[in-house]
Amino acid sequence: MSNNAELQSVKNRFGIIGNAPALNHALSVAIQVAPTDLTVLINGESGSGKESFSKIIHALSSRKHGPFIAINCGAIPEGTIDSELFGHIKGSFTGAIDDRKGYFETTSTGTIFLDEIAEMPIGTQARLLRVLENGEFIPVGSSKVKKTDVRVVAATNVNLLDAIERGRFREDLYYRLNTVPIRVPSLRERGYDIELLFRKFSTDFAEKNHIRPIDLTESASQMLMNFRFPGNIRQLKNIAEQITILEFERLVSAEILAKYLPREQSSGLPTLLKGLNGGNDNNFSERDLLYKVLFDMRKDMTDLKKLVLSLMQGGQAGSVSMNADILQQHQGLFEDIHQEDSVALIPPTVYNPPQQTNYPNYQPIDNQNIIKIDSLQGDRINIEDISHETEENSYSLEKQEKEMIVRALKKNNFKRKYAALDLGISERTLYRKIKQYDIEDE
What pLDDT score does 257 carry? Predict the structure, then answer.
């Protein structure tokens, strides 16, 4: 039988849909390694079909008449996984009222599929390594070594090399498992296979429920193949079944399909951070976030310096001379305290006044005096006043900042909540600035 014929035969036998080159390569490797007893490590995203490959390997091996069991290592509690895999003897722990055989003993002469192998505890990994090296294991609470003849196929959806660096996975176990690696492609890598799978899921579901199957327009097919499908085949199947049962129109257009495709995340930023600019996500960037973090850090450092300075200046009589010596040695640390206080409240690029608000009395203030952050060089911040280039140099940033706060308070009838919204800062920061500048808060 030719390779192509054998490949198609395996696809028909196990219900594998698709002809993507990456999928065909993964199946070819599985077919080649199946007759051997080599350990196999299957890599692939969640929902990409890794368990199907483990069943193919078992069914095409000499162990096909032996038992096959699939175990999700992430679904078994850490305290019981050793007992589940290797068994235990009576009285070995609370609740062990009888001897129990583990999966490695009951699956002897067969194949055991360990899914989410990266979730296995470190202690259990050491036990598994011994099984892979010499086929031996010891039940929990026992001192008697037992033998097993089992083939291990493992799978993971994480990068095990990264897990090794973090100390979450044993390096020796990784190389023992990775004898033959198989990479299962994600759905978005399979191109036209996406439409084939969609039609298959839709048709099967329609036949099962005695309804007419749906069809896709050309634009809908293109939209489907352009979607990333983070949930892979599971997600595609759910969408196909939803549309088949919920839509009355049997010809699905791109507009109809779009209702069932979840909106993809356009940014990795949390939702809370997206709301910092009044909900206008298009104008918010990682650079803006970085500026805000740096300003907060600078403010915290300034407050810490002030605290240390006040403690040292107000020490007891016996320690005044020692404090004075320390201040003299580290004078540079405290020279810029008052200068740092004059830094603008928040990078103006983060502040974009919302066009609509739920506050009935809200009115955006004139932001002509907002200070623009131009660039960051080292740990110094260059500040450019874009609206007062012709004013005298003695017009300090501190004075501008105070005037901005006063104008915002007056504009909003001295309601700090609305004034803070106008300024693009938190109410807590505004309260601190009011105290700092001794502003009368009516």
Answer: 95
Round to whole Å and give the CA distance between 133 and 149: 11
Q: How far apart are CA 257 and CA 249, in angstroms?
A: 11
**Residue 73 near residue 119, CB atoms below 8 Å:** yes
| Three-class HEC string of 43-102 | ECCCCCCHHHHHHHHHHCCCCCCCCEEEEEHHHCCCCCHHHHHHCECCCCCCCCCCCECC
Convert the pLDDT of each residue in 4-33 to its tens digit: 889 999 999 999 999 999 999 999 999 999
Residue 58 in contact with residue 111, Cβ under 8 Å?
A: yes
- Token pair 């009951």 in the structure block, residue: 106
User: Among 156, 184, 63, 168, which Cα is nearest to 122's?
Assistant: 168
Answer whether 217's CB lies under 8 Å from 195's CB: no
Residue 235's nearest CA partner among 269, 275, 264 is 264
Q: How many CA atoms lie within 13 A of 82 on its CB side?
A: 20
Sign for the pseudo-dihedral over CA of 352, 353, 356, 358 = positive
Q: Measure the CA–CA gap between 282 and 273, rounded to whole angstroms.
A: 13
Q: Tell me the per-residue pLDDT of 69-128, one tens digit each, with 9 for 90 and over.
A: 999 999 999 989 999 999 999 988 888 889 999 999 999 999 999 999 999 999 999 999
Does the pLDDT of residue 151 top 70, yes or no? yes
| Residue type for position 225 | M
From the number of C-beta atoms within 10 Å of its C-beta (0-12, 13-18, 19+), residue 377 rates as: exposed
What angle, 0 to 180 degrees and rounded to 10, lies between the N-to-C axes of helices 427-436 and 397-411? 120
Q: pTM for this one?
A: 0.60
Range with lowest mean pLDDT among 109-113, 126-130, 174-178, 408-412? 408-412
Q: Where are the beta strands (DSSP E) in 398-440?
A: none
Give every CB contact of residue 359 below 8 A, 6+ residues apart in sequence.
418, 421
Q: What token pair was written down for 227?
A: 């979607």
- For residues 90, 91, 96, 100, the Cα torsion angle rounded to the nearest 10 degrees is -20
Helices (H) and strands (E) in the chain, counts: 19, 11
Q: Which single residue is written with the structure tokens 């949390």? A: 270
What separation, in Å, do the N-terminal and C-terminal C-alpha atoms of the chain show? 90
CB count within 10 Å of CB 44 equals 19
Please state the length of the chain. 442
The H-or-E segment that residue 376 falls in is strand 372-377
**Phi then psi dihedrals of residue 414, to 5 deg:** 60, 30
Distance separating alpha carbons of residues 171 and 82, to the nearest angstrom:
20
